[in-house]
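Box 3.1 A note on notation
Throughout this textbook, protein chains are presented in two layers. The first layer is the amino acid sequence; the second is a token string describing backbone geometry. Keep the layers aligned when reading.
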Amino acid sequence: MPDEQTLTQREGASTAPSPAAAGTGLELKSLTKRFGEDVLAVDDVNLHIAHGEYVVLLGPSGCGKTTTLRMIGGHEEPTSGDILLDGQSLLGLTPDKRPTTTVFQHFALFPHRTVRENVEFGPKMHGISRAERREKAMSALDMVGLRALADRRPSALSGGQQQRVALARVLVMEPKALLLDEPLGDLDRLLRLRMRVELRALQRQLGLMFIHVTHDQEEALSVGDRIVVMHDGRIEQVADPFTISNLPANVQVASFMGDNNIFEGTVTATEGDRVSIDGGDAELRALVPGADAAVGQPAVVSVRAAAVQVGAQDASANGPNQLLGEIEVIEYLGDLVKLHLAAGGRRLVAKVSGDRYPEFQGKEGESVRLSWKEEDVRLLRA
């Protein structure tokens, strides 16, 4: 377990003077981090985050999202680039001198201290009087709904309650930005679902900048105002949840977000905004306003699982955007059914309404007709 001084450095709020020009938010400028000569963990990241915004850094393990967060919090120094908060560079400031605080995946609460004493610890280390720090601690516990548990020890709390204590302990320091490093990773599924709602509601209530790191696509979509999808140390796309989910910018985003069926082929014709693509066993047609596509060039497209229409088992599949598929696995997920299919040597996924489960139950190995609209075919960057 880390000692108390270490935790003070990790979670303390800024004692630096406020910059003259406030309200400009956080800016990452050409932020780069190398570990040794061979590992480029973060590669020329540029990003602006406004005050009051909930931004999620999303991507697979090793994509650079946690390293980026650690550089913002002062736990790693960048190899090059800058980190500005309200126009003031944070470089060279230790974590306890930055106007940011971090909530780590492992709550690291002091087991021998009560909930209130855990929350009071940061203000105590900053020399705040006993009466004032108690008042601040109780106010922070009110924010997370734990005033009634102030005198309990962490061992008497549930995982969700411990997470809220960890939140109160950083909120009491009144940071300008709250950094959340896989904050729900240690919770079971039901607690994660509940804490997602609580985090979102708390962020709305406080109006603070939240920067949240996760590898969980559903978690990112549920809490973020904007999502930053990262891959190999670079930002692949920054957009609102709807755009990330429905309009992936490239193959990396479409593949990582899941439930996107990806086809590769060659452009065979263009007519206005319509692009025809030979996908081997599949003839594809996309409606892409302003599409920059030329006959003969390679193309990659995606079709969301929810956009795939599943027809009668004995129907033929002819023409563009149609295939015959064989059902391999059926997942009943309550409000929807997820069908895993094989079609022409590729694996596809379709999502249909949960009330159609009796129609597919026990039908593994049978053929179905798959189709989708041309406006649901997304032309991707490679």
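The first strand starts at residue 26 and ends at 35. The chain has two domains: 4-246, 259-380.
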